[in-house]
User: Fold this.
Amino acid sequence: MNRWYFWKSWHPHTKSIYWGLIVILGLFLIYFTYNFFVSPANVIDWQKISNIEKIKVPTESFRVGLFDLSYEFDNYLITEVYRGSDIQISQATILIQLLAVALSLIVLSVVISALEGFWFYFGALVFTGILISFKFEQLLLFGQADKTTLIIALALYLPAFYYFNHLKPGAGILVRLLGFAVITCFLGALIFVFTEVSTPMINLVNYGLVTPLVLSLIFILLLGNVLISFFLKIITRGNTVGNKNSLLHFLTISIIYLVNVALLYAKNAGYIDWDILYLNAYLILVALTLLGIWDFKDREIQYQSMMSFAPIGALFYITLAIICFSTLSYLYATANDPLVETFEDAVVFSQLSFGTLFMLYIIANFINPLMENMQVHKIMYKPPTFPYGTVQIVGLIGVVAFFLNANMFPLNQAVAGYYNGIGDVYREREDQFVAEQYYKLGDQYGYNNHRSNYSLGTLARAEGDHSLAPFYFSEAIKKKTYALCTGKFGL
Assistant:
């Protein structure tokens, strides 16, 4: 029972913080589900344009004496046409993502401050890279396009890391959380008061999109073998001496799952076009996220030299989950289809690679205990011969192999999505020329992606270019039309 309710023995403050983050994750799962089903209607809708034209309608002629007479009366011709609206990104969407990023930075700061030795310095270095990735110089703080904001941020966070790690290592999670929350709020207030750009929120979110994307990718890779390990748990948890066929059941259910993921990969890559029901990558991701809460605890023996699960590892996992689903929700809420497809590819690649390697790892290490129907799930992360680290290394190589087989298309899609976001920044500033250049870069990297071309079409339409606008709109629907007709999305 304690394996399921592992938080029961925690300090009340820590338990409250953890459950608060669990609730936030649940809200983001709901938010993601909503955006998943309504996108792109939450960004683009149909506009009905009506036109009334007065015309003269002649009546039938009639004869009066020697003359044929007729007269006209007014009639009204009403025409209606539908056209797609401009891109409409709500401020609430941007604010939600900004708050999610800020919360994640606060909790990650708490995690880093609690690490020991080499890992503390490594974490502080990674956090410095995170701050650099936000490109604060674009905010023109105090009117300066330099590193002033970055220097201020480093001057606030790094001493706090050192204080909690070296001078006050016994500080509780709540104290650390409040300390880094105050620092983050102060930095945010400084930016919003003294920035000289008109759109600081979308600037921070879209220029700083690299960090949430990288953290989300790390999270997806962490989930690579979660479902296969879950199959092992449900098959061997209740094993007794009289049980039989644990090995057969484990292999059967694992192979069925991996074959279905392989079919999804083949469909996305355009290798097959079968009229069957395929797995949904995002449904897989939701299931993995929930199951991974307990699996990450079971894996503690593999990362305990860096941190313990209770509570630092648990907070780290939930924070990555929050940033992953908040970012994915933001991409759906802004209809940024190239990056959405990059997420799908990451899920499929990692499941195929890590899942297959983990199944082979279980067979290589525990085939005899499985044949004897022992409760192998209790020792699956304590291998006698084939180390679990090999699964991680070879699994990552497998992901890279899928990536290279796709001719680096997922990376190009990610770059295209990033440029779409920067284009949105300048469109919000009403700098149409610069926005157009970024959307063109997005179209260049993510060939025929819907978002770049649709954005270019709306800009051309706003400028009255009635020849270029239809061209971009036709380019925007090419991929969507092809996907709807053939079922081939992604690669």
Summary: The longest strand covers residues 46-58. The chain has a mean pLDDT of 88. Strands lie at 46-58, 62-64, 67-69, 72-84.
